[in-house]
Design a protein that fits this description.
- The chain contains four helices and eight strands, in the order ββααββββββαα.
- By secondary structure, it is α+β, with helices and mostly antiparallel strands.
- It has one domain: START domain (Alpha-D-Glucose-1,6-Bisphosphate, Chain A, domain 4, 2-Layer Sandwich).
- An eight-stranded antiparallel β-sheet has the order 1-2-8-7-6-5-4-3.
- A hairpin with a 2-residue loop joins strand 4 and strand 5.
- Helix 1 packs across helix 4.
- 24% of the residues are buried.
- The N terminus is likely disordered.
Length: 160
């Protein structure tokens, strides 16, 4: 990491895996179609968000919808391989620890009737000693017991 002024410029990389007790098709559907249901309320940045949207197509947006054409763009979708891979790119503004660029790769794989969700997140830009622990904890919450895993396992029979 190279120091520039009071902050550091470098790369932070995190990998997190969460096992969800559901088939991959169910986990994928929840990931890309039901984000507003599992996205933790304390992860929203807006005061009165209407929901969280993942447009699972190349060039799609991952964003917080505040209604009336307002909101916050989190990522742009780079790659979609249905049921397997979702790759995203985003920017962190100074208000969220940046300036930095982030790329995220979410992969889903079958494991004995369950699904392993793997998150690989790389941040380039302003990083410090808190970046990796903060990212790791955030992804564990989002994909785990505070987000996707909890929602899917509590709603296994949700119709397609």
């Amino acid at each position: 990491m190279t120091q520039t002024g009071s902050g550091g410029v470098g790369v932070a990389r995190v990998e997190v895996e969460v096992t969800v007790g559901a088939p991959r098709e169910r986990v994928w559907r929840a990931l890309v179609e039901e984000a507003s249901q599992w996205w933790p309320k304390d992860f929203y940045v807006g005061r009165a968000p209407k929901g969280f949207v993942i447009e699972a197509r190349p060039g799609g947006r991952v964003y917080e919808d505040w209604g009336n054409e307002a909101g916050a763009l989190w990522y742009t979708v780079l790659v979609v391989e249905p049921l397997e891979v979702l790759e995203l790119a985003g920017h962190l503004t100074p208000g969220f620890g940046g300036p930095a660029t982030t790329t995220v790769r979410l992969t889903l794989r079958d494991e004995g009737g369950k699904t392993v969700v793997k998150v690989e997140d790389a941040v380039f830009g302003r990083v410090d000693e808190h970046t990796v622990p903060r990212l790791r904890e955030g992804w564990r919450t989002l994909m785990g017991s505070g987000g996707l895993k909890a929602w899917v396992e509590a709603n296994l029979s949700t119709p397609a």
